[in-house]
Specification:
Length: 311
């Protein structure tokens, strides 16, 4: 199967009350772990690549790894640029084989965000590629932009219709209290998402796919393994999975997960190296990291997203 856009995936997910997992990829083992899980569970999938991933692994390597995964797994896969910061990186990914891009103009003024997003949409649509825009600001770190919790801003429901109609975006990322990274809430703080804002936005945008960034749940199981094997991740805390299940049943059609993959991979590698300091064959520890990634993605697909059997 060739790469697909997210159009059909989102339509079915919206109607079926489930969400598609968008998992960040940085190397072969991560691509393999994610796609093997989705392939066995017959789940549609979005593989997303950040600017940092392109810098680390090289655009061509990542595209070719995803093409290999398409040969090995008979499921629909979209290849998406995560947090495109400007027109140039979006164009480069569109020209370089991606089927979906995000233009993240959320740090700009409303008018500048519209202008930038519209420009990307015009180019992308002329090439058959879909576009995700963003309104509102999440806290956390993505590439070189670090937004503090105090500076994070919820999406204003009264801006969404104008943004979508003037830009022509195919999906919209919103800020309702999720954030990037493994430290999403302060110790003692009760995790909370603004489902009232999500409801208001979905009323104003009927049948329109909403995207949730910063949706890792930061499994305490992996945090404990990392802690027990010489790591230091005290106070790491994520979005409770029951909140993500609730979101997946709503207009949210795409749920972004990266930190959970990093924790799963690192927990496996740390465990091998801590227990066997003489190990030096990368296959010995990377295969454990890869198996953890696969188990994590299978859990998300089956128990959180509800996308199993929907390919
Ligand atoms: O939202 C950000 C993603 O987790 C990507 O992170 O920029 O470190 O690759 P990265
Ligand atoms: P997490 O850091 O919660 O995994 O969020 C990932 C993300 O939003 C990628 O765009
Ligand atoms: Zn994100």
């Amino acid at each position: 199967m060739a790469l697909v856009t997210t159009t059909e995936m989102f339509k079915k997910a919206y109607e079926g009350g489930y969400a598609i997992g968008a998992f960040n990829v940085n190397n072969m083992e991560i691509v393999q772990g994610i796609t093997e899980a989705a392939g066995e569970l017959k789940s549609p999938l979005i593989l997303q690549v950040s600017a940092g991933a392109r810098k680390y692994a090289n655009h061509t390597y990542l595209v070719k790894l995803v093409e290999a995964a398409l040969i090995e797994n008979d499921i629909p896969i979209a290849l998406h640029l995560d947090h495109g910061a400007d027109f140039e990186i979006c164009k480069s990914c569109i020209d370089g084989g991606f089927t979906s891009v995000m233009i993240d103009g959320s740090h700009h003024s409303f008018e500048d965000n519209i202008e930038l997003t519209k420009r990307v949409v015009e180019y992308a649509h002329s090439k058959g590629v879909v576009v995700e825009g963003e309104l509102g600001q999440l806290a956390g770190i993505e590439d070189d932009v670090n937004v503090s919790a105090e500076d994070a801003k919820y999406t204003h429901p009264d801006e969404v219709e104008e943004f979508v109609s003037r830009t022509g975006v195919d999906s919209l990322a919103i800020a309702i209290g999720t954030s990037h990274g493994a430290f999403k809430f302060k110790p003692g703080q009760k995790p909370q998402l603004r489902f009232d804002i999500l409801d208001e936005i979905s009323k104003r945008l009927p049948n329109f796919p909403i995207v949730l960034h910063g949706a890792s749940s930061v499994s305490q199981e992996y945090v404990k393994i990392i802690q027990a094997n010489g790591g230091n991740l005290q106070d790491a805390i994520g979005i409770p999975e029951d909140m993500l299940r609730q979101a997946a049943k709503s207009a949210v059609c795409k749920i972004n997960i990266d930190s959970d993959l990093r924790l799963a991979m690192t927990a496996g590698i740390r465990e091998v190296l801590w227990n066997n300091p003489a190990a030096f064959d990368p296959r010995e520890y990377l295969k454990v990291g890869r198996a953890n990634v696969k188990a994590l993605v299978a859990h998300k697909i089956t128990n959180v997203l509800g996308s199993d059997g929907k390919a």
